[in-house]
Amino acid sequence: MEIREWRKLALHSIGMLVFVLVISLAVSYAGRQGAVKGTDSSGTGTSHDPKTQSLANIEHVEAHSVQKDDIKKLGKRYIEIKKVATGQAVSARLDNDYMTRKLTLRLRGRSVKKYKKDQIKLVYNEKGKTGTLLVNWSKLYHKGDSARYLFRMDHVYETELFETEEAFYIVLRRPSEVYEHVLVVDAGHGGSDKGGGSVGWKYREKEYTLKLVYTLKDILDRTNVKAYYTRLDDREVSKKDRVSLANDVKADAFVSIHCNVSDQTETTARGIETLYSSRRQTTVNGVSSKDLAENILKNVCSLTGRKRRKKIKRDHLYLMHHSKVPVTIVETGYMTNKSDMDYLRKEKNRQRIAEGIYNGVKESLQLP
Question: Which label site among 44, 100, 222, 249 has the fewest CB atoms less than 10 Å from its CB?
């Protein structure tokens, strides 16, 4: 082979080698970036994308086709939206934002431009009450081939969406009519309310309460307990709205998750404790707030091996004073204590805490 050909082959080989190296480095960098995005502030566990979290409290329902004769089986509460034309394809989806009591019916198709508010009919056949009690207000928005009906409801409802050739039907049932066990889980603080923090404020309470709630959610999603969450992203929720959700769905239990703190210069306080109120002797199936607090404290400490403090009466706290259902605040450890903070930072430890909370709820509600 001539020298010229050798040079040509060598240059080609070097070019291919450089190309492979560049691709390998790019893949490696992308993997590291993905790993960074997928870990929490301690470098362990999975974080949640805020863009996804912003929809986490919204439950999506797709439309199911039924026959006209089946409408009689819809129950005592539903919203009927008459179609403007039959035989024209219209896709439909219902979004249920239970924290704000808003329902959004999204329609898409050529005929939706003709839809109007006066096509709405409310059916409420309960104790002689009228349909106006169901919806506080409703609005209709058009944009191109899409339309949105917005309804502000008077209560939290579990929904189903049906359609016939003539109409769409939003079926409304109260949680207790659908589920045997209902739980409300509250991630303390959020948004501009950062809560407490570790020494030096490197870690904030609002972040770790949310991590714990997501871990608990993973457990509850595999059970027959219906759980509602006051927040599943970094938003500020008023104390009134948190309690209102628990009271509205008539929860069997209301669990608010927090992290404790002491003075930044006094870091020896550590351990797990629960809070309850004696001002309202609220019980569901004979279970009081004090029972709920005791059962969760016992189970969390048993699984984690962390220092057990006490269940403490706190009559003056807003959640305790206004809750009409059994309620407890779980203080999962002192962020100002190095041992407790190191424990909270690890995902496997948060898993143990979440399992302990669930076991305490399970014992309180006598779940199988």
Answer: 222
